[in-house]
Amino acid sequence: MSYLAKKMILECFCCAARKEEPNISAHNSSREYPWEIYTLKEILHATNNFHNDNKIGEGGFGSVYWGRTSTGIEIAVKRLKAMSAKAEMEFAVEVEILGRVRHKNLLGLRGFYAGGDERLIVYDYMPNHSLIAHLHGQLAVDCLLDWHRRMNIAIGSAEGIAYLHHEANPHIIHRDIKASNVLLDTEFQAKVADFGFAKLIPEGVTHMTTRVKGTLGYLAPEYAMWGKVSESCDVYSFGILLLEIISAKKPLEKLPGGVRRDIVQWVTPYVQKGAFDHIADPRLKGRYDRAQLETAIMIAMRCTDSNPENRPSMMKVVEWLNGGLEGTKGVSDVEDMVDEDEEQNYNGMEYEDDTDYDGYNGTEKFRERRTWQHRK
């Protein structure tokens, strides 16, 4: 989508928001668009004037606040920090895309506010916070994610991404699949979130070259190095996420001497030896189905193949994961896919743990992005 088209979308949002400002936004069901246009007064009341005690996340884009509407509905409000052309673009993209999609494993858009210097996006509130909080954050010590929950989260995330790739019209590439962008509802069902970097893919287009955006450690090699983006880039990121879910290892870790190792490099020797139990999160204490563990790891390895042409589609990944959990052989052709000499190589790129990358051809800019934290 062109810059002009996105700018026009944003202007339509802003005009609509200004037009609706005097009214209560809770009665939008008869309108043509699927979201609510909130008034600033409503959001200020829900978040206690964006009180610091209501803050549940913060990043380079701004902050996320918990709130409760006058009707008792819990919401999460993303408040953009500063108005810039880039911020407005991401706002327009996210609202447009979330307005298009409807799936049980995608975070639901409740509405937005656009007026003056404020750009606010209102989502469903996720009581169990983000996957990253359970794997690496302050909820990790509670170990609330048993094997069954982890596999359900993996399948739910895969189904949400598969919907974006294969059912949304036009198809959508997320470009920022990672643990902090998988939120968990009351039943620990996965909701893929944050579409600020997403790309709409026109019919018949298989890939594009674009400015690199996303999070180091999750980026497919061809995208990180050359800006070549396609649906297989999301597949790669999902493979990293799946390994992270299984092992509770970060996508990137710093070794003694300043050397950085990605999760695929860490996993590969164990896969080659068939030592799958060494990959599983020790906090599971062996309480997992070993056949499912092996299948899930091999699916992840297939997803993270350095050659994008060898990666499966997300539809195939969903099929494999569901097959594996039902006790059947989920991946029939991956036993030979781990080459003895295979190694993920980023040609000496500098990268940080769970840090977003916004640059292209050597121009790097690191920004912290949202991590949903446990509400105080």
In short:
34% of the residues lie in helices and 18% in strands. It is an alpha+beta fold. It has 2 domains: 3-124, Phosphorylase Kinase, domain 1; 131-367, Transferase(Phosphotransferase), domain 1.
Description:
- The chain is globular, with a radius of gyration of 21 Å.
- The protein is built from 10 helices and 17 strands.
- The protein has a 6-stranded mixed sheet, sandwiched between helices. Strands 12-16-17 form a 3-stranded antiparallel sheet.
- The protein has 2 domains: 3-124, Phosphorylase Kinase, domain 1, CATH 3.30.200; 131-367, Transferase(Phosphotransferase) domain 1 (Transferase(Phosphotransferase), domain 1, Orthogonal Bundle).
- 34% of the residues lie in helices and 18% in strands.
- The two termini are 40 Å apart.
- The chain has 376 residues and is of the alpha+beta class.
Topology, pairings included?
Blueprint: H1 3-20, E1 36-37, H2 40-46, E2 55-59, E3 62-68, E4 74-80, H3 85-100, E5 109-115, E6 118-124, H4 131-135, H5 147-166, E7 171-173, E8 182-184, E9 190-192, E10 199-201, E11 207-209, E12 212-215, H6 221-226, E13 228-230, H7 231-247, E14 252-254, E15 260-262, H8 263-273, H9 290-303, H10 314-325, E16 356-359, E17 366-367
Parallel strand pairs: 1-5
Antiparallel strand pairs: 2-3, 3-4, 4-6, 5-6, 7-10, 8-9, 11-13, 12-16, 14-15, 16-17
